[in-house]
Amino acid sequence: MPEPPPPRLDEIDVQLLDLLQRDAGRTLHDLGEWVGLSPSAVQRRIARYRKDGLITRQVAVLDPHRFGPTVLAAVLVTLDQESFEHHRAFAERMRSTPQVQQCYQVAGPWDYVVVLAARSMRECSRLGNRLFKADDNIRRYETLLVFDTVKTGLALPLPASQPSRSQDGRS
Amino acid sequence: MPEPPPPRLDEIDVQLLDLLQRDAGRTLHDLGEWVGLSPSAVQRRIARYRKDGLITRQVAVLDPHRFGPTVLAAVLVTLDQESFEHHRAFAERMRSTPQVQQCYQVAGPWDYVVVLAARSMRECSRLGNRLFKADDNIRRYETLLVFDTVKTGLALPLPASQPSRSQDGRS
DNA sequence: TCGGGCACGCAAGATTATTGCGTTCCGGCG
DNA sequence: CGCCGGAACGCAATAATCTTGCGTGCCCGA
């Protein structure tokens, strides 16, 4: 279980990470100006975030509706047999299906929440059939078609800056 | 309604966009090598994607569990009064709450699906109380605590490359 | 058949990122 | 109480990357 204790973050770290998770396109100079640090100091911190796995990757976010019609759906799923192997197989199918944006295993009567993105209602329907109806280990599933995307993103609420790591040599 | 007809995309466009939405950290040189184009040609295409709004932004993705304990939840919500104004107010609250990662308005008995990210179970609970219990226009809501994140991301399945835009001057 | 539009590659030129170095601050230890 | 090592900083030089101007080839429409 790769869980080295969460690195201690000072206020500047939190500011930087928050800036980056909202817009990773800025220059080191800009970032530095924002948090009051030189470009090289900013660069070194960011390198550390990467090394520590705080930043996993950097992605371009596409606008679904600029690619023509797009159908989103949230699907609630309950498996029939709950064996370890069945769960594994289901998860693997979700991971390997490009139209599956997100998949969470959850507590309660439902086992999974799945977010789908398809190019048409027809594809969305087919997808539901293929992923859930054709699987005879799915007890029940319910498709919640998305009318409107109010908010989207993967931004995390960052923990308040821990007062630790107070030793630093800036003026 | 700002909907200029979706730009036609050739196979290279699709490849580039797909590469970018999975890893926007590559250099123009790398991307060019991948799709068989010079760095400058790649740069010009990407500039166009931005101008056309295909790429909305570029973000760093953080690993929730590297920041210490993290609690995710999917919440299903049904409003009481369905007036336009009530919907607007709810949406605005979702947008302005950092712990709300995603919020979709959906068809069916439930009105919204909301994805929450909190630093602790306690914060998650408080958040539910603040966002939903304290709102007397919420008829009912159900919290699905996330046990495991099987898959996450915002990647779109890209449409098959349209054969259009076949005129281009590359060797 | 000719001309315009468009995308390309190449090669400067401009910007940005990276690294080496010397300095300061802090905490631990003799 | 003073010294030493570690960590982070700023500055400046270097390296890498991005951006842009220019000339060329291709396709389409006139």
TrEMBL record, chains A, B:
Pfam families: AsnC_trans_reg, HTH_AsnC-type. InterPro entries: ArsR-like_HTH, AsnC-type_HTH_dom, Dimeric_a/b-barrel, Tscrpt_reg_AsnC-like, Tscrpt_reg_AsnC/Lrp_C, WH-like_DNA-bd_sf, WH_DNA-bd_sf. Residues 9-70 form the HTH asnC-type domain. It comes from the Bacteria. Keywords: DNA-binding, Transcription, Transcription regulation. This is ArsR family transcriptional regulator. The lineage of its organism: Bacteria, Bacillati, Actinomycetota, Actinomycetes, Streptosporangiales.
